Amino acid sequence: MLTILRHIIQEVTSAQSFSDALEIMVKRIANALATQACSIFLLDRHHGEYVLVATQGLNPKAVNKIRVPINKGLIGLVGEREEPINIDDATKHPRFLHVAEAGEEAYRAFLGTPVIYHRQVLGVLIVQQEEPRRYDESEEAFLVTLATQLAAIIAHAEATGALAELMENSKGKRHDLVYSGVPGAPGIGMGTGVVIYPPYDLDSVPDREPDNIEAEIELLDAAFATVREDLRQLSERLYPTLPSEERALFDVYQRILDSADLGKEVADNIRAGNWAQGALRQSIQTHVRRLESLDNEYMRERAVDIKDLGLRVLACLQKNNRITPQYSEKTILIGEALAPTDLAEVPEGCLAGVVSASGSGNSHVAILARAMKVPTVMGVGEAQIHDLQGKEIIVDGYYGQVHVSPGLSLRTEFERLIQEEKKLDAELDEIRDLPAVTKDGQRIGLLVNTGLGADISISLAAGAEGVGLYRTEIPFLMRDRFPSGEEQRIIYRQLLASFAPRPVILRTLDVGGDKPLPYFPIKEDNPFLGWRGIRITLDHPEIFLSQIRAMMRASEGLNNMRVMLPMITDVTEVDEALRLLKKAYAEVRDEGYDIEMPQIGVMIEVPSAVYQARALAKRVDFLSVGSNDLTQYLLAVDRNNPRVANLYDALHPAVLRALIQIVESGHQEGKHISICGELAGDPVAVMLLIAIGFDSLSMNASSVGRIRWVIRHVTKKKSAKLLHEVLSMESAVMIRCHMELALERAGLGNLIRAGR
Ligand code: PEP
Ligand code: MG
């Protein structure tokens, strides 16, 4: 059975299309189980129906026609129960539903299993047979195993749009193509897709219509010729010294290149409407997929050869024809793994939205997008972002969805929502200069998180009382070398001067984790538990000293600067950092700068710091909670992994209890306690943060207006009552629901759902 299973999976994974894969699956399963019928029903969520999409044994004309309501029939029952149902005579079952077009009158035995992906039912896989009998355990296990494979294929088809296309055919009407990810930055963005991809990376080359088919074919031929010649020269040079195995490799490469097939295939893809680079990607990927799915180890190894060759040809094509992105006036920036710098490269005023295939709402790209007020969807995952180039796109940053080439009605609906958002923003703007004080007189500091020079004006316009977190790594990330001390001084000075006399907290370099510096590579298996933040800068005191000297020089005459240390896990790190800070202060004063020693703070963002908050508070002037990392480390949930994004919630009861402990410890030492993670800008959380006793909240500029609005419409007393209530709850989901309801009841629901 295992061999049959492997063969079916191999065949299905190398199928040319989604519908071919389904066809192959039903035929092979029916064969393997020696049963007369095997069918796949997929769930059409739009209409609440299961659609027959492939069958062996039922009426083939009924494919894409039969639709079973979600709560009807045995199909519906399998979906409801989310477990296999094995019945010897289905016609006697109370949920049996006779569907005239199916042609299943003769079938009695029934075994159906749900197709589930990430806890969601995607469809039902069934087998049937004329004479009544129960399928045995091994047959059931076989079907269940194939259902898990089918789930992955459907999920992939959902991401690539092939599923929507299939459903479209079945209903005979247009379905808008929607990719789902996770919310990255709130808001709705409409514009044209611009796909960014790293050079010399075959998998991320986008599809693009060629301007001139013949010219693309010429480029391709030239690239093939160059690679052929390069390989010839290489092999000639190395031949005498090469062992025979490696020599054989060159021969294999030459043979692949010389075979008319590969070149012809790519040229056919060009003629079918793709440019040379995209056409090359298509062909190479098809070959690689096929080879990798084979049983034979030797053939699997050939996949590596094909990939390598593809890369060589691509390198030639890109050397001759590297396309620099053409940003449109309303650019929706799309990429496999966008970096903060990619956002900064779009001309000012042209960035309408961001879509990233990887990452989650807590990735730094998303944080930056929020600061820039650019609607963003992260982690659309396996979506075929290749073909979004030049397409009309709507980014729904509230729900984490990306609509591709939307129809008129959808566009109109989103335009209406954008208008409503503008109205809300105008209302928030009216209270911009009023203090953040609750109705019963509790004053809370409202500060901004920044990192880009460009967002200074946005932050000032938001009416922030200062900067609660300046991520100094951002200017470091945007260069191809460490910025000099003087370059840093100028950047910090501009920021400090723009906000003076309001306080500005500069955080020392926090690289590592998901913020590697391109010119300071760190290769680690577990970067979030590795060399990051203060660990790097204490190991490289020259980098740390250069930075804090630049900060101190920049503060002369302004005296509004504070310095904060990231990723502190141990008091000795603070002691060492303080020693270096004092040293830098003395040196800069010796240089003749007339400055005061800045206030120093520590970020509380790992569990050990929570338990040592009091000892840490004793040593410094203030504490600031980094709830993004604190949540990741307390819950052991990677903040960047979309697969576990549903487990990542800073309203988890464990996180709330940690926050309470931090604030209590800090206040016992008489120190100021703020929070600068994304939680501070979450309208749903703000009442709890007031009740916990934070002195100030620091957030993205785009959240300041909403948070000020919430604070001014609630009381500390009511917040304390809510905190008391949620502390009796045991899950983040319950707490979030409770707080959302409280916001709705207070008439503040529009702050969390954009006009919906
Ligand atoms: C945090 O971890 O909450 C934080 C503010 O720092 P960053 O997001 O830059 O890691
Ligand atoms: Mg952090």
Automatic annotation (TrEMBL):
Protein name: phosphoenolpyruvate--protein phosphotransferase
Similarity remark: Belongs to the PEP-utilizing enzyme family.
Keywords assigned by UniProt, alphabetized: Cytoplasm, Kinase, Magnesium, Metal-binding, Phosphotransferase system, Pyruvate, Sugar transport, Transferase, Transport
Major localization class: cytoplasm
SUPFAM superfamilies cross-referenced by the UniProt entry: Enzyme I of the PEP:sugar phosphotransferase system HPr-binding (sub)domain, GAF domain-like, Phosphoenolpyruvate/pyruvate domain, Phosphohistidine domain
Entry annotated with the keyword 4Fe-4S: no
Enzyme category, top tier: transferase
Pfam family, one: PEP-utilizers
Subcellular location, record wording: Cytoplasm
GO biological process, one term: phosphoenolpyruvate-dependent sugar phosphotransferase system
Keyword Signal attached: no
